[in-house]
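Hey, I'm writing a tutorial for new members on how sequence and structure tokens pair up, and I'd like a real worked example in the thread rather than a made-up one. If someone can provide the structure for the chain below, I'll link this post from the tutorial.
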Amino acid sequence: MENGKNRELLTLNSGDMAMPYEWSIGLYGSRFFQEIREKRRFLGIRCPKCQKVLVPPRRICGPCFQKLDELVELVSCPVGLIKIDVEGAEYAVLEGATRVLAECRPLFYVEVGAEQNADVTAVFQRLKYRLYDGDSDDEVELTQCAFNTLAVPRESTRTNRC
């Protein structure tokens, strides 16, 4: 009726409903993680104007405002040092980076928790890296990872003092 008198109120009942979601971080972001998972390689995207390679890939270069579409594999980019501090996922990161480890042979500075120590040590030993205590000035090579480990390729002349 008029003026709000004798109105029938509408009541909505909510209930459980299956809502399957798949999270997406965009076209290039999703591709970045798929390449790591499926092909064990890292991708970046090169800006046609400034030639910077951005990781993870995105659609627009922040400094240049250029549209980006040239995906590049990062193994072709020089990698000198990788720092890993991932709270218990050190082994997974190293296993995902085996190609970079084998081809680029970078130095690693890794925070290694006790539960990951044996696995991380095994990866570095398998790939012929020397291990040093990153918190010490001693140039003593370790047989297993320290909490803060500096891993140096055996063929390198560097020590923990780099």
